[in-house]
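REQUEST
  id: r-88c1
  op: predict_structure
  target: DNA repair protein
  payload:
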Amino acid sequence: MPKVPPSAPPSADHSHNATDQAILAAAEGILHEKLQRQGCIGNPMDAADFLRMRMGALPHEEFHVLWLDNRHRILDCQRLFTGTVDGASVYPREVVRAALGINASAAIFAHNHPSGVAEPSAADRAITKELRDALSLVGVRVLDHLVVGAECVSMAGRGLL
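RESPONSE
  id: r-88c1
  status: 200
  body:
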């Protein structure tokens, strides 16, 4: 029977990254369960901790939507778009399709800024308005758009919705 050479031990970097990923996944799971136990979103910032854990450390932009029913109970949190280090293309048609597919009545948008600076850009404000207008045609209210960085900035809280 041929001898199989022992596999090389994982590098310290690889096992460290795997451990970090496992810890972040566990934390996200705990925050997701807490959010689900709340049952509904009374304030869009109720979701901020969960979204910060889910997106805050990503090296690229992602656009997520927290879909809610008419009593603001959580239906789902979907990652709809993934981008690069400084942007993600967001398509209103696909957001409307996702809303109709899950039968949502309300939405909270969230995207991250890998730079850590959570200040909403002019492009963030423009896509939020475009999405709000598109979703209003099918009866879905946009409650907020959270920009996730070192902190979470609520565009509704800033009067930008």
